[in-house]
Amino acid sequence: MTLTMDWGLLLPALLPVAALALILVVEAIAPTARPVLVVLAGFGLVAAAAETIPGLVGDDDPRLTLCTPAPDGRCMWDGGALTSTLQLAILLSTLAVLALISVRRAGVIELVMLLASASGGVAVVAARDLGTWLITLELATLPVIALVAWRDRRAAAHGALTLLTTSLVSFGLLVLGTALWVTATGDPTLTGESLATAWAVPEQRTLAGLATVVLLAGLAFKLSAVPFHAWTPTTLTSGPLPISALLASSSKLAAIGALIVVLAPYDAVVDLSPGPHVVVAALVILTVASMLTGTVMALRQTEVVRLLAWSTVAQAGWILLPLTALTVAGRQAAAVYTLVYAVAGLVAFAAVRAIHGRRVEDGRELTAYTGLFRRDPLTGGALALALLVLAGLPPGVIGLVAKIVALRPAVSAGLWPVAVVAVVAAVLGIAVYVRWFAVLFGEPTIDAPARPAQRRASLGVALIGSAVLVVASALPQLLVGLVS
Amino acid sequence: MSALTVSHWLVGLPVLAALATLALRRTPHLAALVAVLASLASVVLATIGLFVAPTRFQGIIQVREPVQVGGIEMPFELGAGPATAAVAAVVALVAAAVLVFTRWYLEDDDRLAQFAATVSLFTAAMMLVVHARDLVLTLIGWEVMGWCSYLLIGHWSRKESARRAAYKAFIVTRVADIGFVLGIVGLVAGAGSTGLDAVIDAWSGPDTPATPAVRSALLALVVIGVLGKSAQFPFQDWLPDAMEGPTPASALIHAATMVAAGTVVLAQLFPVLVHADGARWLLGIATAVTMVGAAALALGQSDLKRLLAWSTVSQVAIMLSALATATEEIGPDPALFHMWSHAVFKSLLFLTIGWLSVVAGSTLAVALRGAGNVHQLARVAWLFGLLALAGAPFVVGGLSKEHVLVTAYEGAIGSGGPGVIVLAALLVTVVLTAAYAMRAHLVVTAPLERAEPSAAGDDHPSGMPSDAVLAALAVLTVLTVVGGLILITGLFDIHRASQWWMLLTLLLISIGAGVSWLARSSGDPRDAFVRTRRHRALADRGLGFDTAYRRLIADPVLGLARVVAFLDREVVDGYVRGAAASAGIAGWFAERGHRREAPSAGVGLVALGLIVAAGTAVLTWR
């Protein structure tokens, strides 16, 4: 079998791997040159990010590669605009996490794991066949477990164990779902034609629906959607903060990319009769449960990282909301929402790290943030903006825009009850973030945590992220237009 | 210099003056000087405007590509015409006189600069209303005037009564403005343009955009706004209370701006108004009631400044009544002419009483007895001002009032409007006006030897104003006497009046003045008309309209607000509190469910998820 290859399209995934290999070689030759390794990793990520730009600005030519020969050629790699956007976001958020880990402390293990995870994330959003999709999805998530555990703390090991257990179950589900999909459609690639063919036969249709539901369950672990969310608060609070930021940003982007790939073939069957009601029902259950559980749990938290963890669960519901429509517009809206959430989440995590420093396990209560806006206007301002965006309140306009963009496909698909639940969750969600937002503007107390010595990188990430949010709030069409 | 350039400068210059004055507020006297110089420049400009004014029927309008806002065109044009030039000239003149007087009257006031700036802005707004050929510009000028009047009336904001008067003026005129804005919006919507000429073309022809009833209703709404701003029944009560403001402010509000603005706007809309019978009836009846009632109240005031205020209400009613009764051939110019002459003599009267009150230390009639003896000019100015007010022949007020009478008569015999009622009210008003003018004259020029003039305030020990003030008063006095000559210029389109009307008014004035003269023995003729203490108090309180406003409007509105606040707090907020409580309870349950965040619990939830997924699959299996 011959495949057409367009290396340019593969470069975003290959460059981090190349950087990874180079780092291993350099480390073997000169074990003391650690700063060089960090620079190499950074270069790898930036170069890969640069390679995604043509996909963003290019014209409408299909950017397909790894295609089998015509007439019934299948392409296993799609580097279109939506894919490129997600890839860029994954690479840049990994770069931000690298900055949060701090140049001085990043060991070779961390660098390798980060690059592997980034490469897997970049690949999974572009993959169009089940084999690549499954392998790269695991490549994107498994290194994170190691990163969580890579600390000699009991709590971290505990968190990593939780993540490992769930990841294994998730992997099992994904393999099962993949197998069911191939059984149902007889096609290892995810295309609308083969799904439509399978849909015509009742038995195959049921099997395809079951395959999708099982795949959804497997992906819901990565997205931390209820009821597959239990690992999230434990892992996010016990692991190192930068890795929590990675789980909340880059991993989410990879997971939503993977989900978009799985749901894309449903374009071909969404208007048929009978329609894919099972898939819609599964998505709606995940959406509603995640939004409500995540929000009410976040309302009760007083520890900020745990609050952010539960808000991740709630935001997972919002990410899934537009997908319930099973349309192109819905997938784009999900991507936009995830992008906005990832940036705001990164800013929030970076601000938390800038306030508490490297040893962030203790005293991360809401009370430690009293009067932050006066004590530390830069961090306080960035954090306030991120919270407003997460809540969807002006002046964090982009958060509001993202929520409206996410609601629109569900409404136009006629899923009114879900939209109503989403609105209720949005209102409760405002309460979640305003609880935190409000303490920022109080009078500073005496027992405020001391400002950490090394926090330039964290502050930088927070401020660059805030700048992105401000620009996106002023010109929302930039971000919305990027994927539509 | 073209007429159009003049009108642009007349609007722009006072705005610039206001900004400059405000910028110089740290040096109040310099600031006031700047305002005075700018206003004098405005007078010069306006005088040029009189000479370059277009001849009759040839209004010049700026031609400009209209701004398209939705389906509405907005040309934002200013215009110039013969009557416009005359009105603008008198506005500029009165504003200049007021500013000159202010420099002396408020010499030691710490907020002199702010006052002068507000006067300049006020003038600019009035100039905008006068020159606007676009209803949006009219509305802007109208609203800015309302705001400036609030600032001027409440200038002495340390006084509780001044604050209340300012609030009252603002709220009463705002309430009436609801009608004004609605009417304007309706007219504009029908015409598809905010340009005055487009509106007139659309609504005055035989085929209006809506039925004639709608046209009448829209004009009636505009008339309601005008009644509010011009202090006509039933909105009249704010104006006498506005006497709490400094006297120059009163002179400005009463003579040339604010209350006169309604006349200008209705004159601009006259071609539509003349076809709107409902609006004319409303205007005619309201003005007929107002002119008689206000004149009677003026007779009963214990405070001469409030007497002048009620006389303004009555005189404005006279000019508006000319608009209500005029036929299409007569046009709006009799009303504008009366506004013109009223501006001249009323500013003269107010500035004179401002001077006299400084001498006497009060504006009460008791205190002002014989105050006119302080200076020959004061006596002359007061006398001619009152003669004009009473409508004596040949002085400016007499000429204009005669034309209003002729207009009402022509309207009464010529068309079906409210002419008869207005004519009757006018004749009664002439008698009453002569009576209270005579009373004011008798009080001020009573032959009393004043013990010493030291009753004056500490600010002005001599009680003698500066030469500039005297000059301004002299100019106004001369204009009051010979101002009628403006008819020769032909700026106002007015027909000749019959001699018989002059004889009739002379007779009526003699009756009114004679009655007052006969009642002079008691010192103040008022005591002969209003005998009991209770009646005097009732007259001073304007027949208790303030109480009526509070009982009928303010209290119900406040009560409604309380009901809404209660509903908001107890009912609407109830849902919010309920949502908060249920979210809290849900959170408590959810937390119980997540108490053991251990791998085992995670796997348990995974198993649960699997069961759900498998169940879904089995259920959908057919």
TrEMBL record, chain A:
TM helices/strands, residue ranges: 81-101, 108-127, 133-150, 162-184, 207-231, 243-266, 278-300, 307-328, 334-356, 377-402, 414-438, 459-479
Membrane topology, as annotated: Multi-pass membrane protein
Ranges for domain NADH:quinone oxidoreductase/Mrp antiporter transmembrane: 127-428
Q: Where is the signal peptide?
A: none
Instruction: Note whether rRNA-binding occurs among the keywords.
Output: no
Q: Check the record and name the Pfam families matching this protein.
A: Proton_antipo_M (PF00361)
**Any one Gene Ontology cellular component term annotated for this protein:** endomembrane system
List the subcellular locations: Endomembrane system; Membrane
Cite the PANTHER family for this sequence: NADH DEHYDROGENASE
Protein name, entry field: NADH-quinone oxidoreductase subunit N
Q: What organism does the UniProt record list as the source?
A: Knoellia subterranea KCTC 19937
